[in-house]
Amino acid sequence: MQRANASTVTDFVLVGFSAFPRLQLPLFLLFLLMYLFTLLGNLLIMGTVWAERALHTPMYLFLCALSISEILYTFAIVPRMLADLLAARAALPTISRAACASQTLFSFAFGFTHSFLLTVMGYDRGVAICRPLHYHVLMSARGCGGLVGGSWVGGTAMGTVVTAAVFGLDFCGPREIHHFACHVPPLLKLACGPRVRAVALGVAGLCISALLGCFLLIVLSYAFILATILSIPSADGRRKAFSTCASHLTVVVVHYGFASVIYLKPKGPQSLEGDTLMGFTYTVLTPFLSPIIFSLRNKELKLAIQRTVRSKLAPPRS
Question: What pLDDT, on a 0 to 100 scale, did the predictor assign at position 280?
């Protein structure tokens, strides 16, 4: 009987921002502007790196891969969220089980790819500062391609495992997901059967282990970087060495700061509205800030973007 009841749950209701009915139109406009800026910022970074031969280095190759993963991550969630914000003014939007599984797969795959690429970028900065004479050997074109490919494969594997585990469960109702996307914690609250607790613990353990592992590897890279920078005799040399990784370090702090709020928050009674707002910080705000940070904190990229924009806006010579 349980299996029969579970089979009747073919779609879910996304409660989303329904708790803020008067804010739905302002939120739609705000999120739309932030999403468009995220797309344009990442496309501008990718176009600048492509156009500037001086930026054809491993660091900017990784930055382009990071921009691609960010575009795909937001595309998996934000357009649907924007459409639902408008539709929710008439009725709560629904999403099919297949579409929900697809959104979970892509959001986890691209989200973890993003984390893996940040880890690779930390390793790249560590090699550049700590072992500059061996940099071109350790970060060859083949090696960089392998690191980028490994990040994408690892992210896809994480997304596939999590999605298969969650949607392999039975959903017996109710159907309301108290979030604006197919977020795993509220989804698990709708599942039923003896395997729910084991899947919840397994998914939580896998996600936290992956995020924590990436974070610890980044911390290890920066421990070596800091030790090397402190050994540089001149203050100007130390400043130049640190400036090459300032933008990456800032993005790491923002990325893992918001991720820790989402995944490592203590269990306890919390408002559903609070969970939705915290989900916004990681889904919309972090991708919005990332291209800004890389554009402003990386002097070489900043100057290259200015040259690219000026060349596009300059009137043609007669």
Answer: 78
